Input
Amino acid sequence: MPKDNIPYKFYLEEKDLPSQWYNVRADMKKKPAPLVDPVTGKPCTAEALSHVFCDELVAQELDETTPYIDIPQEIQDFYKMFRPSPLIRAYFLEKKLGTPAKIYYKFEGNNTSGSHKLNSAIAQAYYAKKQGLKGVTTETGAGQWGTALSMACSYFGLECNVYMVKVSYEQKPFRREVMRTYGANVTPSPSNTTEVGRKILAEFPETGGSLGCAISEAVEAATSREGYRYVLGSVLSQVLLHQTVIGLEAKTAMDKLGVKPDIIIGCAGGGSNLGGLISPFMGEKLRGEADYRFIAVEPASCPSLTRGTYGYDYCDTGKICPLQKMYTLGSGFMPSPNHAGGLRYHGMSSILSELYDQGLMEARSVEQTSVFEAAQTFARVEGILPAPESSHAIRAAIDEALKCKETGEEKTILFGLTGTGFFDMYAYAAYNDGRMTDYIPTDEEIAASVAKMPKIAL
Ligand SMILES: *Cc1c(COP(=O)(O)O)cnc(C)c1O
Output
């Protein structure tokens, strides 16, 4: 029998799966700042947003008062294909580290997209279908979001147009083929199929692309044609809302096991998995019912929370999306080509940014060689080959567990293992060959990019 009567792997029963998402904004006294229209400089109206996003998703984006939002039955049914995700007690890792800490992780890699992104993709495809649209457009960085969306669109018979960051398109041909297998059209970005793509190519002909730039192309492709809307796999509050299934399941499972985490850790790109994981716990903290430490982990090469500025910025390089108040490195920030593609975003969820600004959440940045060292340790003892993005959370979880080893504290740590790394073998190869380097932007580089942020006075 394992220690403390806690099983290695714990799955909720179907009847205990969430039937509602939890909207943490409802419990925030000071809410995230409103989205701002890039044309008028005033808060976005639902009407204006409805040209870009599906109606129901606009309602979710703007809703900061309803604590629980029903998950439509069709989405709940789809979730059952790959949920519940397991809550795993990392006994092998604990033993390897020789730590008194108790480590748990919520593993979201058990579906073909290989990540948590399917949780929101299926919701967004559902609302697009319900609205009678022909299709959706989107961007994908590392490819996980594009894959998830292709799966969701093929399920509902929707057209799916994916702008894939060029470096990933070239480095990850297999991801591209998974998307095409699910029927998606995949275009490397920047491309000459959009005005904004042509403009960026004219200025930076050699660029390998960025998420922000691919977003601009996808938005243009959606808004310049009838019957299409743009969908986004991170950053937006609606995405964070859908991802709360992770935290709700984790919380129910831990309650059933009689366990309370002291520290909750997640990697942060645009903030959706971390926001989804911590939301129910943060809700308790906001209502004064319990206390937790929350840690966001980001790459040292793209440190939006730890070295960015809190203010209004464009969500995309093309400056056509609504503006969001967030911790940002500036929308023109071109992160170095590090291997955690899903974390190469210049900004952060407005919800997480506000929670961080209020001191309710911590953040730290980690260098990629130390991230891969943690990934390798984890893979060798826990069996799962983690995604480079997820390995940022592993790094911080290991560091916290090692601190417990020094102090003798038996803390309980929960982290989000967002996905698997089977499509990231070039990155693993670079690490295994000792060719991996750590690029950290200088203060001057960040200052130059932040200086171009728009001046918004509300
Ligand atoms: C996209 C992605 C992330 C980062 O996105 P968030 O919105 O910050 O959660 C992390 N891990 C994996 C595996 C991803 O695919």
User: Anything to note?
Assistant: The pocket of pyridoxal-5'-phosphate is lined by residues 115, 117, 142, 144, 234, 267-274, 342-343, 387, 389-390, 418-419 (CB under 6 Å).
